[in-house]
Structures
1.
Amino acid sequence: MSDSALLAHDRARGVRLIAGVDEVGAGGCWAGPIMAAGVLFDLERLASGAGRDLLEEVNDSKGLAPAKRERLANAVLAHAEAVSLVSVPASQIDQIGLRAANLACLERALRAVGERAELRLVDGYALGSGAPVHERIVRGDATSATIAAASIVAKVTRDRLMARLGERFPGYGFERHKGYGTKEHKVAVEKLGPTREHRLTFNFRRHTEAVVAAAPASRRKPRPASWRELPAAEMAAHLLETPTITDRAWTVEPRLLRETRTAFIRRVLLDETDPVQAPKSETAATEAVSGPARPHNR
């Protein structure tokens, strides 16, 4: 049997133990958690064992029929060396922002899959320097069989959760739209109001202005500022112009030893690795807000 393109990609990396991580429920989603899965495969064992046909079928979960996703998710759980599954709830997404929640979820899934992997692949994102060594794969769920397997596990598990939330909160259609921003979802929230599973962050407010005005006062108090949802370049510009914003307000990644705030922002958001020296006034402002930099022991 010839390898599928996704499986051929992974075999070409020349390792036996390969881990893939992917998430679901981030962009465009108004309700429910972000969920990330990690999958560790032993490619040699799969090639000679009962799961030898498994990786031939896996693909981006979004392009698979629900019944096939369910079957493949069960196969992954049966034949993977390890599987991790973590989530970040709507309340925490509101608190720390979508980007920080997404990165934190992926990093936790990467750690939870264990230390045996010889190669770790993450779909779409380069995680912080404190994360296990990994490689970012753009459109990884359509490129790597291992990442695709993780996307299937995350998608199937989250879909099951949203179906249960549909039973707990009848009338919202969670079992159909899975929390994403559809017309049905918008009409339901305008009529019934948001549940505790809804995210009252920028994307949600933009599409449901009438709903937010009627939200309970207890949910309206701590709303993240809209800058949290800006594209990376615009967020970096805003942070550089506003030295009073602390690091933890926008990222879970720590600074490197003696790294200035400007260099830190440019490294994390703009992928600029050359050190940038901040003026003394900026350093003083940073230390006034978050204290002197401390070494990070790894």
Note: DSSP finds 15 helices and five strands in the chain.
2.
Amino acid sequence: MKTLLWIALAGCGSSAAAIDAAPDASTRCTAVFSGNFAETSVSDGCATTGMAENGDVTLVLMVPSTTLATSVAGLFDLGPAPTPGHYSQRTVTTWRVRAPQRIGDGTCLYAAGSMQVPQGSFDLMLTEIDAAGVHGTLDLTQYVLGFPGTDCGDSQTEQLSLSM
């Protein structure tokens, strides 16, 4: 059964995108975080395809992290007919990845995207993309934005290496 998933990531400069995504349980994801924290997360179906309101195919990420106590949510607009190959912040016009982390009374925001300042970066190598699933690797650099009085750690960036 397909689930209608609304992803609204605050501050991205656009309205929420409706995505018709069906998680593929056979897509095993391994995520390695490094920077302010070190964690390896293994999950099923963290990367799916969807359809944006404009008809483009999207890559949708929901990568769980026990350290953040939430999932890293991402959306990459791959265009109307994506093919296996290399994608980056230079070739993908619209993309965003975010995750908040509560620390005491404050929040650390791990953020990157085409409408984010600073933008961050990514290298995405898709080996397979179709209705059955998404396979490949993603190397992502997110900036760590701390609210006043919040100690988010020594590093200003967090790296996420994802195998899907």
Note: Residues 3-9+17-163 form one domain.
3.
Amino acid sequence: MYANGTKDQAFYSDQFKYDKTKNVYLCPAGKELHYYRIRKKDGKIIGYEYRNYDTCKKCEFKARCTSVKKGRTICRHADQDFLDRIDSQTKRNIKKYKLRQMIVEHPFGTIKRGWGAYFFLTKRKVSVSAEISLSFLAYNFKRVINILGSEEILRRLRQRRKVILA
């Protein structure tokens, strides 16, 4: 969801519906915004712009929709179809998603914010895998210390050493 310049939620960009067959966006007032151009960044296509300035100028809701004199422009991300599919899957499986947030995402957030690991220090998959593995080893080790205590861990390690050496 992205805000518009007027802060009217009825005209946020998620309220504009895409018609794949006609390749147009329908605004909340029912008007069509037509394909205008490709939006690029560093030579790569990042999206497609849709607009209809002639219709926007005459629209009774223009002041609620945009603060731009010419009219409203909507940008469709290059991978929007994929993003829409992921969004619909998430909505269909919201219980699983919430469970995943509770179980899986907490360690990532702790490592990221608690330890300042906002980015990887290495490059290439093998190095990044080793780096994240060490981070999770440290995370899990710290959890075990908090749960069992260092004395209990040392006792169990000594006990295992005796079994192995015997």
Note: The helical segments are 53-58, 62-65, 80-92, 94-114, 125-148, 150-165.
